Records
---
Amino acid sequence: MSASNPAAPASPVRSLLARINLQQYVVYVGFLAIFLFFAVVLRDSGFLTQRNLVNIILQTAPATIMAIGLVFVLSAGDIDLSFGSTVAVSALCAAMAMAAMPAAAFPVGIWAGLGVGLLVGAINGVLIAWLRLPSFLVTLATMGLVAGIGRSLTQLRSIPVTDPLFTGIFGSGSLFGVPSLVIWTVVAVAIGHVVYRQTRFGAHVLATGDNARAAQVTGIKVSRIRLWVFMISGGLAGLAGLLYAGRLQAAKYTLGETDLMTVIAAVIVGGTLLNGGKGSVIGALVGSLLMGMLNNGLILMGLSVSDQMIVRGLIILVAVAVSLREKTR
Amino acid sequence: MLDTASAPVLELSNIRKAFGGIVAIEDFSLDVRAGEVVALVGDNGAGKSTLIKIISGVYAPTSGAIRIDGQEVSMPNATKAREHGIEVVYQDLALVDQQPVYMNLFLGRELTKGPFRVLDRRQMIAETDRLVTELDVRIPSAHATISDLSGGQRQGIAIARATHWARKLVLLDEPTAALGVAETAKVEKTVVALKSRNIGVLIISHSLDQVFRLSDRICVLRRGKQIGVRETANTDKNEIVSMITGV
């Protein structure tokens, strides 16, 4: 007996299209198409210069790091809306800790930044996994709560980050000519990809998001998995905060403010399902680069801020449409 | 010392389960011996699924004892039941739809290798191939995604998983309710194979024909009470039907 396909299309092209997992590749095709489009249209505006292309990667580094966390959360069948505001608070706490203890600025800054991220993640995780509150509402609430804390921490002032080791490692430094932000991106994506694809934890995350009851009865500790994915998301938001603070040499409550929509779009375009059970870390990286490239290209094309928002919104709409089409196949 | 050959793998004594004021199971006792197939029959709402959930650790009984190989055990969760060698084929199959067959067979018990404990996909695929061939589950490949499979194939995977991991007892909750004739026959063949591996089987079925084909004993449940247990060879459908309906 073969896997039956009741609505077998007559045309060979359509049957081929039906068999290819369109959603899995749409991000690569889209990336290439938009890249080529900009390369032609903006050939005299400096889009293809090495400096501009490296710049795109540097600018998207924090968003890519956040996107990895979101892949885990969405794959487990949840959503996290709070990572954007966590970024700002992590950066502010890191900057304040470094200012308070200049002698040990580097380690103190790291611990403060990551600690805040992990704490927010743990709070989300406990409320969602053990009190069984819906993740959308919990993280919507913590998003506002954390954003408010970020504003009140320094009365909207920005805090300078001057420790040279910190700004080197998390910002402008480089190793063998490779900018540190590129290294962070590559390392985080590589680790994220391996954990997601090659470990029991990754398999359990996917099982939890796909069929939580099946996961439960086969011995997977679903509550623990859900706590972990929110801690991963929070911790990576903390790391993104450090990267922002290092690159801009300052922390401000506005950091990460606009990243929420970009990161969600990047992850969805990258082939991660909103309903859980399926996703891709590499796809999220390419999705994030795509969003960064779009930003960059639209600015170089001279579009106004409002026009940029409209174009980005349309692209997200297309991505969601493809994602849902796949789901109802 | 107990004679292990005849000791029941599963022994339920005076099991009672109440949900608030409603009594779902009352004073239920039943043995299942190694290599024996016991059928649990009864009308809808008689308490069959509740019993399965008690044995598989999903519900704790309000009172009464569960013994496995003569040892009294408490089963606070499904993991514990599995540690005792009990596997369940749930009515909804408990499969992860977007994962391949081999990941489902090893769900919660994935094989790993090396110091970093990365998934040993090759080993899992090899064992899956061996198992589906052995049980004659016809699937395109171990890589096939569950959502692409037919109802019979999915059922086959769920049963293959249970038989692969079971050491003492397999619980089957309506295993052939949604299947065609050929697929039902295959499932029944698998049940007989479990017998020969000396594994106890407790099967819930609405098909009396099937019950009489497969079981050694039949236990009838009506409104949470055990009406009686009969040797399949010494009873007939009329008796069982009248026990189920109470007329």
---
Amino acid sequence: MDEEYDVVVLGTGLKECILSGLLSVNGLKVLHMDRNEYYGGESTSLNLNQLWKRFRDGDKPPERLGSSKEYNVDMIPKFMMANGALVRVLIHTDVTKYLNFKAVDGSFVYNKGKIHKVPANDVEALKSPLMGLFEKRRARKFFIYVQDYEDNDPKSHEGLDLNKVTARDLISRYGLDDNTVEFIGHALALYRNDAYLDEPALDFVKRVKLYAESLARFQGGSPYIYPLYGLGELPQGFARLSAVYGGTYMLGKPECKVEFDENGKAFGVTSEGETAKCKKVVCDPSYLPNKVKKVGKVARAICFMSHPIPNTNDSHSAQVILPQKQLGRRSDMYLFCCSYSHNIAPKGKYIAFVLTEAETDDPRVELKPGIDLLGPVDEIFFDTYDRFEPTNQHDVDNCFISTSYDATTHFETTVQDVIAMYSKITGKDLDLSVDLSAASAAADSEE
Amino acid sequence: MARTGGNKNLQAKLVLLGDMGTGKTSLVLRFVKGQFQDYQESTIGAAFFTQVLSLNEATIKFDIWDTAGQERYHSLAPMYYRGAAAAVVIYDITSMDSFMRAKKWVQELQAQGNPNVVMFLAANKADLEEKRKVGVEEGEQYAKENGMFFVETSAKTAQNVNELFYEIELSFESMSDANKLEAI
């Protein structure tokens, strides 16, 4: 490793691996190291033995849960929007050929104590028990407006400039009530709070469109897809991409100390007495703890079950969003369930996560409303982790630090961070205008 | 992963294992393109080949995975082994060290791969007889002990290269007859 590199990447989490892959493809000489012996960092998938080692101080997992090797439990569980940014990155880089995907069965929202399917278009709106008779018709009109809206077709804009009109004004034009606005904003547009209501409506409309178009792609019950064998496959796939384009991989490297010159600019990384020189350092927050600040905390419960989440129509994989106001909270809560049908657990076993941005120090109490929806669980782990954001200036220190993964159960925020970092590192924009049907073909050919 | 399509069309993932410089990429290039270069660069840019072989009534589409250099610092990802129907472990007959390392790769494969993976041991660079450090019997003996097929190959002269892949296909065919492929 005593060579000189364009970029040294530290940590093999998903964000770092996507960046490593994109940078290698872009022709940069990349050295990618991780202090752990395994790929994935915080976004790895663990088997039972690894889970028990981490959360139960080395106790052996109970035999009734089956073979350890058959489990791939995500540490950062998320689904991928079928037409979303991550799928675009996967197609752009051709990493799809290393992975197999399957549609997620269901997408739900919690309302007044009950779980409902998320209605995403005019037809579903008319059937949804989430709304009364007149509200259904209003929602139907709103969905038709969104479906027909095209950026480059002024006729479809109905005289509204969505760069100026706020989401709140657009909604009031259709007379939607707060209840409807809540599920559209949080379960379709995937906003984490209500600040969007006072922003230009264009982003809101595009998000709702993305959901509806993703849903239409696979004729499944949700707009989401998920890789067989768990999300831990994603960093591995991008790491392979990076290696194929000349990236060098070293796991189990202790320390990984970033070296700075007298002007505070990073010029290399030292591990085991050797220093790899480089022009830039890319890393997750744990490698440069002095250049990040804590911005929040995620509380989560990992639950082992022998049944799907009740009232989700027997979905073997599902997302349920519990909007903040339904629980009297400041942040949404998310349920994520996956199972043997995605090869992440032995036959008949399900893994559910309950996640939220922590507002207290007691995840057990805080996550209870979500856990109560799961029915009996075979095993449960509680955990919290801190979220960090970089505080450095990359033009001063040559360091590019990713933001910790948030509590959402989808990838949209993750990819936004990656794309922004890519532009900062290379000074180029990432062109993600790809032929999305490539993904549909890849996904359709499986199973 | 080996899968049956209709009418005996099989798809199978094949992985190559072995230390740097043993000739993994050269063997595949010889098989897929019929080419050989004396100074094949370390693998960059292409680490995924497909090749269709027809034999008797069956057609097999091989997805061949090369290590992309990730074997160099032992950072090969678990996904590499995932669903592999066959693995070719390669050593260089002029390097005892590469033979010792091949044994480590076999152990790694037994730990990480699926239990039904068909394993082949290829003793490559058989054209360099005058520099030979690993005897034929040594390779044969080790392969036998570990239930592997054994063959001495040369990507340079093409010796036994097609035969190796022909053997792999034969082993798939007999497996698919027993309907085992789908179980993988």
---
Amino acid sequence: MSTHDLITVHLKVWRQNGPNDRGHFEDYTLKDITTHMSFLEMLDVLNENLMKEKKTPVEFDHDCREGICGSCNLVINGIPHGPQMRTAACQLHMRHFKDNETITIEPWRAKAFPIIKDLVVDRNAFDRIMEAGGYVTMATGNAPDANAVPISKVEADSAMDYAVCIGCGACVASCPNSSASLFTGAKIAQLAKLPQGAPERKKRVIAMVEQMEKEGFGDCSNYGECEAVCPVGISISAIATMRTEYVKALF
Amino acid sequence: MASFSNLLQTTVGRKILTGVTGIFLILFLVAHLAGNLTLFAGDGGEAFNLYAVFLHDLGPLLWIAELGLIILFGLHAYIGIKIYLGKKKARPVDYTYYQSQGGPSKQTFASKTMLISGMVILLFVILHVLHFKYNFFMPQMMVDNPAGGQMIDLAGHVEQAFLNPWIMLAYTAVMLLIGLHLKHGVWSAFISLGAKNPKLVPVLYTVGGIVAALLAVGFLIIPVFIFFNGGLL
Amino acid sequence: MEVASKKSTFKWDSKIPTGPLTEKWKTHKNNIKLVNPSNKRKYNIIVVGTGLAGASAAASLGELGYNVKAFCIQDSARRAHSIAAQGGINAAKNYANDGDSVWRLFYDTIKGGDYRSREANVYRLAEVSNSIIDQCVAQGVPFARDYGGMLVNRSFGGAQLSRTFYARGQTGQQLLLGAYSSLMKTIKSGKVKMFTREEMLDLVTVDGVSKGIISRNLVTGKINRHAADAVLLCTGGYGNVFYLSTNAKNSNVTAAWRCYRKGALFGNPSFTQIHPTCIPVSGEYQSKLTLMSESLRNDGRVWVPKAKNDKRHPNDIPEDERDYYLERIYPSFGNLVPRDVASRNAKNVCDEGRGVGPSGLAVYLDFRDAIKRDSEQAIRERYGNLFEMYEKITDENPYKVPMRIYPAVHYTMGGLWVDYNLMTTVPGLFALGEANFSDHGANRLGASALMQGLADGYFVIPYTVGDYLSGITPGDVNTDHEAFDQAEKAIVGEIEKLLNIKGEKTILDFHRQLGKIMWDKVGMSRDEKGLNEAIAEISALRKEFWENVFVPGEPATYNKYLEYAMRVADFIELGELMARDALARPESCGGHFREESKTPEGEAKRDDENYAYVSAWEFKGVDTPPVHHEEPLVFENVKLTQRSYK
């Protein structure tokens, strides 16, 4: 049975009152944090303490707290979702931090993800990229039998590898150029692997890539940082697939 | 709509152009290296000089090739600079504290210095051309052509240059920088041009490193050899 | 204590079509009224929530040509909590050639629900299940396949057939992303307008008919009015009334509760599913519970020490001092008994003082024997990602040490009462998915929640909403109507009131306190005394909340704790109703276990003679007990039997 260790942490938290506020860091110290706590539970404690002092709590996005909804968007000590690989911030536990460690918490930073308040950002740009073409055009009810088109296990598994994207935006946050290529590439690659995605593949890749551009995301320099911080470990090969799809669309 | 004319308008198009121009530039380097290695033929540089004559005699074809190279080079550099300038636009407020996650990340000294290494290479190429093609820094030398008449003694020119320790060192340093640029560049070109298999990704990174190292060593061995050998074979 | 007010003469009709069970839906579709294609664009429909039910409904209705406004409280429609469903989705495809059929799926579902759901609804659900799989595959959902390229199925939740389709351990995510992609496509086409970070706070009714909603923009705090000819509530379940549950932190009952307060009956509020395999609570700070897929019980053996308070390391407890209690009590089903049975037994052994772990509220789920039998590699292939997740959370390696698990609130079968057309008792207000009182009766089988959400959204509501709309004039009420004035004023007043209490306790304090009452007294086993206490305690908690809560910040900004305060206020009222409902049903059925109604061996005992009905509650005011209605359940096609897993 593992033991509960109690640690003290010093937080440097980004506070920003609204989109037009300049923002600043505020320092907080939390004592007696058990190492079994999740990172977000530690922030809950911070907020409870603040409210007991009648202060305004820190706003941060969270929902499922099991690493699948993609709401969390904390840059912890300079790394989106923190130090543990393949882990969303909500699944990160305090046992990964040392006693008396100073932890810096910032929101995702990108022009395309404007800050709403404190650590909360607006990620609707992702929705608009999906709207541009991240779907198969078919109306409810006119689908053939599910087994009418065989899809080899290899292709289906590969499509699934890209389909698991949780849309959190860590790829953008970690990218030195703020590129959304991994997010966009993952959807394009998923649908490129499946026969259902074939009829509109050209239209899709062009529309999604152009939307990505319009949203103000940066260029991809193949740094691969996106793959390293992706909580579900999507491979940079998604980006390569997006590019080959794009080249095919030229002809 | 996607078309070749607006490839420059999207991040994906730009990256494809970077990859394509990069691959052509690598091919150029390979050809250039092959030519350079004739210096080791042991004939005092005759094969090398004949190769230069052959190229020179191509006439208009050479001009076209040169023009092509200038376009490749210019486009490659232009996009690189544009991407760099786009960084600030895409993230107007930067992180106060930022670090790499490591693991599969390819954020290395090489990848983070692409712009700097690229700029130095650009500068080098200009000087290099002035140096050996337009004889800016040394008078042209002539030698007997075995086929009759005279030909430019480019090999002698090279030999003389690299006996100078400063030129030798400068060239060696730049070749190392080219290696660094290619360490990220070769891999990046693979990814930009469609290395779709996730299992291939780490393999390609290693391959990229090897190609970069071979080219760098292949080029820098010439000045180093000439200097320490006290001249050509 | 008075459980319920006197019965009123409320008029309601479940609208179940006549005719043989297998023909009801077909006949109904043939008979319901249609809206002319060119008229569809004149109708406005509001869809609240973008989970499986909401996203599929909004997309399908948009495709038909209606003007749809879709709302979600998250920053993107894709984050609805359907995304967290792991296991799979049932369908009667019979691809496994093991004798499955629509009838069998229907029968298993109605039996699994312990005969507290409608035959006609459940049959329809089974009937449309196959179309759902077709639909999802066509959208590009990468279900698991075999090397020949065909879809594969697994058995799930103790079913005797392999009828569960799955996409690794992320079936909910993939189905939701499929529905979300259809929604995005329909938004692109201009037929759906999406409102993210916008929370419905009230239903606007005119003469008792649903005419729109009041919402709050969660970014700016602005209160908005939206008029519509029909409102579809797809807002999920209310498991967070227990504070700790497997639900997402923002899952709430507010939209449904406000509809209840505007006249929609609430069906079977006390029917809650407690899932047996969750990671146990590790401390007071715990904010949510994480489910470990039920599939683990296929290979893991559940046990506790025979002795009380045995604090030895599990690996030091010899075989003959272990009690594999599920295998002992239920020799034929063993570790694969349905969720309600597994949960109750875990509670029993812990109540006996034989629970394990620091809190004593956990049992072991041990893979030692499976690893010995099939190798660690085989187990890793089957459950690798789950074991990884377990280790991330607990810092224990389940390959070496048995997992510790404990039941947790997972799903609520109760919800707004709806008729066969999914319309509530408020005309024009529909409820879909987990938000309605559902087809799962008193207990939901594994892999059937996804099925129901998508059935409602893709294949039921597109037909039935037209039946309603064809009978009304489109756009007869706009947002200038005084009903909107009043509703908006009430919401603004409520927000002001909350912010001005400036009490001493945090919202979380109240939520935790409510959760504890609910878990202890309205949880896995219930009795009259405890339920009466719960009603009194919750009522007192409600009063204290409105006097002593501290809600921080301003109304007109992003303010998550203000949202939270409104949701907890509604949970408190709901908790009381749940206790009343549990009290009004002295029988045990499915997930609802009354200590007063059990067999001599301690198993749940149904009372079909007196309680084969749906409870539906009518709001009469916060301080007035609600009215209890009964919709009798008629079983013409299945024989009611006592469930036995011995």
---
Amino acid sequence: MKITIETVEHVANLARLYLSEDEKAEMAQKLNSILDYMEKLNELDTSNVPPTAHIIPVKNVFREDVVRESLPREEALRNAPEKERGFFKVPRIIED
Amino acid sequence: MKLYELTIHEVRELLAKKEISSEDLTKAVLERIDQVEEKIRAFLTIDREGALEKSRKIDEEADFSGALAGIPGAVKDNICTKNLKTTCASKILGNFIPPYDATVSKKLKADNAVILGKTNMDEFAMGSSTENSGFFITRNPWDLERVPGGSSGGSAAAVAAGECIFALGSDTGGSIRQPASYCGVVGLKPTYGRVSRYGLVAYASSLDQIGPITKDVTDCALVLNAISGWDECDSTSVNMPVPDYTESLVADVKGMKIGLPKEYLGEGIDREVREAVLAAARTFESLGAACEEISLPHTEYALWAYYIIAPAEASSNLARYDGIRYGVRAAGYGDLIDLYKKTRSEGFGPEVKRRIMLGTYALSSGYYDAYYLKAQKVRTLVKSDFDRAFEKYDVIISPTAPTAAFRIGEKTGDPLKMYMSDVCTIPVNMAGLPAISIPCGFSQGMPVGLQIIGKAFDEATIIRAAYTFEQATDYHRKKPVL
């Protein structure tokens, strides 16, 4: 068992997810069976193989820094679950 | 022939000769939707009014210069369409109305295509059957008890059922080709970088590509023409000339060298699927191509490397769904962290949570080298397999999927079994190559797809091979009876 319930809880916190006790048990079981298969990759000696992050060798892509139209504020806020006076509204994060 | 059964190139002629109007065609397709959508459920959103209004406007202006002008198509629901709901089949985006168009949506509109609506999919494109939709499942038009494949299952089912003339899908590990195969239609995943991903809701950014799902290869070339090209809004799109793909619609494979990888025809591949692919190889030979068995030795490792890389990228991409700027925010939260966690826990379905967890774990401190870095190195090996093969061969052919469409519910309990249905398509995304799936036979009455893989940016050759095969066979003419 690679993944214990404690690991699931730690990773769920990193991923900002709540899991019920049942979900934690199921997640541990399913992730373990998936990771068991991942062990297959260790059959391959990759010590001299460079990693591929991207298939096309993309370098930094730059463009001229010119002023142009952007999304109007009302449009940008249109999908906001809560808004106030032209801002996204979130719970208080700074204590008095 | 009913209007809704026609292809793009067939209706284009009728529109050009003014034998029909765009409104006639759009109405015919909407009526077809009225007839069969209850059974298929391919659409998450149908924009009746918008589509009819657009068709009338096109008729009025009589500008049919665009290759898709006046022709009703459907768009997968992870591609942003301005002012038309785009949910990714996720509850967390259940109310999202994009304030902008994806570049491909813009290109369809510039071509005067009529957008009918948005198609169902596995939530955030994570799945192989469309059973992971956060809203409802889609059924295969060939057998309503079977899945249409996924994740672009709604697009493939809609094309097969005549609920649109063409559709767009997206493909991260097979999500265009596998459903096209299951539904007996044509699906093409372009080379990574050929089509702009701007406005495609990101799943795994180094693997995702948008592509056409159509009734035949000619239509595929027409849609690919319309959506390809460099875009300054996508820094990974490639700035090189786009050929006119209709010039590749030439029935000629004489002298073409075709590789047939043994790893794609062995264990786990259904007997009838294998036979259909071998028969396709013989068809190519009879048309003057040379087929040889080849080996792509790292094939089986590609699947497992993919299930590290794709979830890792997904865990990062899906961090943005936090209930702040858009999407659905959970009710009754306490502090900010509680808001994030409640929103995400209620908004994401089980497979999405599983992949976020897997990806977060693979990227977390202490495991990065063992999983993510290892998977990226294996990706290099997978790509080298193809590089070597393409030194000698023009295209590689294989099954698109190990089996024909499976039954609804058959694999939902076991993610590993579900993952296996993408074993033939995933290596292609890992290497960034273009590939097309075309109908090549039947297994117990269900369509079987042939995958033709090409060199990077050589969509032209796979289209030529596919077109040649299509002209020599009539699998693409078979339609499901609904």
